[in-house]
């Protein structure tokens, strides 16, 4: 039932509205001719202002700021704190991570964590408790405007402070978290390590297209069935209102953020570290299924979040220890020890064999691996930077320990000045039998041209063609031979010669049927890439340079590249998309191999070299044995993931929603662990994505399916997946329902059966899906309607796993 979000003096009216074919009666609120919008379209409008400091720059000792808060509904009516469910005031600062505390003396807030009403380190403007009751700073005018006089500045550290008010409407559906910053003792404004709230680096992964941010508090819980998205609305500042060195929460923002984002690799999740003031945090154990998505470095990529250099210039036990949580600085132990592995792949025989990993590493003679089990005792942070310099000459420079060779030890190749030739049809159209060519230059990040890619064995190449772009199938299989690559020293250009264009397409990867159909006229994707392999500290790495082009085949119509997803959308979270050993980095090219009908590795696929069955990773689970030899090859003898699709859309949706679709009906035969999201990849490696989950609400489809915004007059002027809307290309791919994609998330037996019942299989010809009837654009249960996510009011699903219907 709808509950009023405004005082009872308003007139209540009933209105009948239609909701996708069903008629419902909804209570609407009318105020002076204004009708409040429905809950999923409404908002709280709040402003928070501070009185200016007497000197115009900062507040000095003895001076007291005054806050003014105004909260309005969509009709412009001012809402007093009594008309709200929550109106909590927080003041905190300075901004340096180790210095931030709740400014309890300024607020006159209680600091007793055992307070009966749990009101400590903040002030509840609806029913305030004060440290000194006589110093009541709250005034609520008859208009509903709130003023709050803070106490005079005394011993507060100089720096940038913030005042913020967490607001929740009476029905719990609408939230806001307005804030205002001010200076104490200095005019120098401090910034957050993640950047200003409005452009925080947190938004790269956690902000949906609606503007809503998805962090821990936005998820529904038993205590907050609608979640508390207001608390997440302006990271990282809003987080520090409670999570600071002396705030409402005993766990700091730094501890939470580092612990959560390193979750899967924590050694002692949630463990206490009294030596640097970290209390036990049982909630971190819930995030051990989180992996930082930066590729290929994961949480080593500090710059993915830090917009300043604090991560390398200001080391501390708290900052470093919350990621390296096995290090106990008071006892000088690393527990459990860090296992580096074997030097150069060989068993170590003595401690000096391990110096390539760390000067403190020791050899475990039983395992042959190098381990780190000790760390110098540190009683404070003063000497951290002595060993852990930012870079350069220190014993263990931070930049070295967090080095990402793919970005630092490579020339960062790029294909430039590329042109495609070989078409014999009109207007550059390819015909059957034509031989495509790609002429290009290869340069490094400094602009210097690379001229030895053909002769240097560390370079590899591949070129392929698939299409048409609206129904991707393989046409020219990956051509890998450098015999097809020519180099002209005079112009310093390369030319790669593809196989001739065939009349029919190829079968999807690992499929027993398909292929052999005539290639229809249309736009096709040409994908070519150059890689350079190199070794750093005994580990192999790759630099990659991709080229993705779109060709005409069999027609002279418009060229329409496939633009269903964008590189920028993938890189927003992954920083630098890199799969298949770092060789494939172009998001728009994934569909050239991962076509409809493609499956993961099948029966008979061979993996690593072996002498016995027990050496095969899949032997214990009953799907891999050692065949041939000796030596032999680990061979799939019982498919662990039968009929598992690797089609781009289906696979990507399944991976990014995996934790919510466990026990999916279509994965019921997985021999390794039934119901989990597994794929058998290169060398029969079992890839387990079962804990993966998109960092925003998966219903915000436009997070990945972004619009190009290119100018257009018709949809022919836009790529596949885009349509012309108001003179701009807008993504419509996400609005098109299909069984293979929708079942990737909606994976229950019921939805699987529903899709099968609504698919027509004629005696001959193409299968006909009828999804559009109910779920197509404009239909009663369209994808757009079902995935409608409002910016601030809709309930998000829990991050915990369950079978999604």
Provide structural commentary.
By secondary structure, the chain is of the alpha+beta class. Among the domains are: 11-41, no CATH class; 45-240, Macroglobulin (MG2) domain (Immunoglobulin-like, Sandwich), CATH 2.60.40.1930; 408-562, Macroglobulin (MG2) domain (Immunoglobulin-like, Sandwich), CATH 2.60.40.1930; 606-786, no CATH class. Helices cover 10% and strands 25% of the residues. The protein contains 15 helices and 35 strands. The protein is globular and about 90 Å long.
Quick gist of this model?
By secondary structure, this protein is of the alpha+beta class. Among the domains are: 11-41, no CATH class; 45-240, Sandwich (Immunoglobulin-like); 408-562, Immunoglobulin-like, CATH 2.60.40.1930; 606-786, no CATH class. It is built from 15 helices and 35 strands.
């Amino acid at each position: 039932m709808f509950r009023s979000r405004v005082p009872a003096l308003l007139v209540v009216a009933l209105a009948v509205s239609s909701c996708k074919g069903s008629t419902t009666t909804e209570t609407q609120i009318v105020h002076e001719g204004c009708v409040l919008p429905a809950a999923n379209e409404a908002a709280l409008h709040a402003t928070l202002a501070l009185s200016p400091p007497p000197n115009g720059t900062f507040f000095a000792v003895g001076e007291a700021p005054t806050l003014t808060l105004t909260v309005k509904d969509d009709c412009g009516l001012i809402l007093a704190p009594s008309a709200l469910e929550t109106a909590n005031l927080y003041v905190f600062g300075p901004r340096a991570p180790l210095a931030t505390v709740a400014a309890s003396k300024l607020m006159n807030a209680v600091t007793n964590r055992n307070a009966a009403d749990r009101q400590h380190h903040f002030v509840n403007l609806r029913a305030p408790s004060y440290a000194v009751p006589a110093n009541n700073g709250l005034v609520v005018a008859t208009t509903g405007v709130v003023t709050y006089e803070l106490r005079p500045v005394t011993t507060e550290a100089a720096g940038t402070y913030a005042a913020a008010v967490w607001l929740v409407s009476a029905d719990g559906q609408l939230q806001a978290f307005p804030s205002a910053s001010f200076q104490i003792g200095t005019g120098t404004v401090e910034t957050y390590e993640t950047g200003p709230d409005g452009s925080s680096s947190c938004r790269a992964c956690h902000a949906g297209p609606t503007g809503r941010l998805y962090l821990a508090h936005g998820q529904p819980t038993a205590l907050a069935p609608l979640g508390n998205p207001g608390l997440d609305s302006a990271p990282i500042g809003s987080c520090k209102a409670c999570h600071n060195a002396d705030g409402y929460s005993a766990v700091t923002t730094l501890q939470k953020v580092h612990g959560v984002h390193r979750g899967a690799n924590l050694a002692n999740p949630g463990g206490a570290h009294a030596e640097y003031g970290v209390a036990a945090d049982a909630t971190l154990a819930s995030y051990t299924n989180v992996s930082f998505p930066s590729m290929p470095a994961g949480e080593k990529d500090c710059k993915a979040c830090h917009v300043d250099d604090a991560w390398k210039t200001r080391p501390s036990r708290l900052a470093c220890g919350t990621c390296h949580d096995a290090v106990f600085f008071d006892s000088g132990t690393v527990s459990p020890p860090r296992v580096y592995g074997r030097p150069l792949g060989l068993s170590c025989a003595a401690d000096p064999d391990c110096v390539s990993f760390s000067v403190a590493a020791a050899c475990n003679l039983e395992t042959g691996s190098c381990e780190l089990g000790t760390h110098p005792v540190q009683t404070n942070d003063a000497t951290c930077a002595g060993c852990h310099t930012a870079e350069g000459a220190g014993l263990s420079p931070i930049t070295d320990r967090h080095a990402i060779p793919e970005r630092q030890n490579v020339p960062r190749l790029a294909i430039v000045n590329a042109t495609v030739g070989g078409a014999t049809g009109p207007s550059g159209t390819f015909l059957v039998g034509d031989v495509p060519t790609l002429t290009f230059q290869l340069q490094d990040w400094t602009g210097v041209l690379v001229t030895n890619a053909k002769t240097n064995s560390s370079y590899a190449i591949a070129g392929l063609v698939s299409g048409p772009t609206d129904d991707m199938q393989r046409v020219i299989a990956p051509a890998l031979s450098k015999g097809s690559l020519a180099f002209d020293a005079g112009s310093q250009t390369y030319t790669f010669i593809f196989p001739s264009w065939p009349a029919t397409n190829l079968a999807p990867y690992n499929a027993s049927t398909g292929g052999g159909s005539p290639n229809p006229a249309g736009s096709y994707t040409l994908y070519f890439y150059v890689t350079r392999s190199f070794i750093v500290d005994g580990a192999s790495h790759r630099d990659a340079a991709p080229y993705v082009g779109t060709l005409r085949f069999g027609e002279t119509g418009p060229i329409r590249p496939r633009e269903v997803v964008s590189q920028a959308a993938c890189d927003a979270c992954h920083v630098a998309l890199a799969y298949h050993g770092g060789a494939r980095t172009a998001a728009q090219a994934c569909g050239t191999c991962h076509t409809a009908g493609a499956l993961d590795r099948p029966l008979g696929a061979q993996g690593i070299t072996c002498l016995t069955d027990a050496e095969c990773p899949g032997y214990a689970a009953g799907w891999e044995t050692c065949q041939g030899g000796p030596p032999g090859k680990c061979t799939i003898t019982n498919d662990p993931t039968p009929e598992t699709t690797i089609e781009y859309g289906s696979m990507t949706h399944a991976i990014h929603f995996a934790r919510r679709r466990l026990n999916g009906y279509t994965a019921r035969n997985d021999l390794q662990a039934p119901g989990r999201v597994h794929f058998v990849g290169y060398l029969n490696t079992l890839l387990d994505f079962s804990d993966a989950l998109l960092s925003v609400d998966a219903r915000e489809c436009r997070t990945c399916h972004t619009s190009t915004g290119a100018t257009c007059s018709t949809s022919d002027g836009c790529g596949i997946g885009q349509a012309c809307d108001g003179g701009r290309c807008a993504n419509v791919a996400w609005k098109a329902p299909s069984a293979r994609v929708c079942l990737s998330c909606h994976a229950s037996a019921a939805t699987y059966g529903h899709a099968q019942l609504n698919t027509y299989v004629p005696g001959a010809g193409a299968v006909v899906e009828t999804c559009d009837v109910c779920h197509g654009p404009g239909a009663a249960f369209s994808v757009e309607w079902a995935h409608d996510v409002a910016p601030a009011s809709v309930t998000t699903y829990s991050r915990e796993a369950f079978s999604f219907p």
